[in-house]
Amino acid sequence: MGKRTQIPTVNAGSMADIAFLLLIFFLVTTTIETDAGIDRKLPRENTDPIAIEYKRKNLFPVWVDGEGRLLVKNERIDLKELRSMAISFIDNGGADPNHPDYCDYCMGLRDQTSSDSPSKAIITINTQRETEYGVYIAVQNELVGAYTELRNREANRLYHRNYTDMEEQYQNGQTSLLVKAELKKNIRYLRDLYPLNIVEPQQ
């Protein structure tokens, strides 16, 4: 009889170890994108009618009905008017010069029946269940755009550049840590000048 040939076999003993190492590799190197959503503040419950009446001039109520129509301070407006109206309200600076809330950098009309300062100005968005999501997002964009315009104006006055450019540079991974630290301080200061006070009252 001839010599029996042996069939070569693959040693699979370490396959489990290899699979485990590949799993760890993919877990470490894979980045998962998360949707941050839209950050908003919910108002605190306040049952004091005097306090509510006092704050009424600092409120900018925006109503959006089921057909996408806008109502601001009981007046029907177009979406394209919303941003300029919001800027006028936020930047009004109606507080008395001797009051702690007085805004010396505001360039508004200083109407004492409107908002005292950007930190006190609150924009509320009220919607109906039938309101289309696209209309809701368009309203949000206009209101956020109003704050961005005001921050850009102050950034140009203080730092001779746009607020949006500063944010982009801060988010850039190639920006040095030293520059990022300075940008972070300046961006935070601009946000304190014009805080994003957009709330959605609970229905």
Automatic annotation (TrEMBL):
Gene Ontology BP annotations: protein transport
GO molecular function, one term: transmembrane transporter activity
InterPro entries, sorted: ExbD
Example of a GO cellular component annotation carried by this entry: plasma membrane
Alphabetic keyword roster: Cell membrane, Membrane, Protein transport, Transmembrane, Transmembrane helix, Transport
Subcellular localization: Cell membrane
Pfam families noted in UniProt: ExbD
Topology of the protein relative to the lipid bilayer: Single-pass membrane protein; Single-pass type II membrane protein
Protein name: Biopolymer transporter ExbD
The organism of origin for this protein: Pelagihabitans pacificus
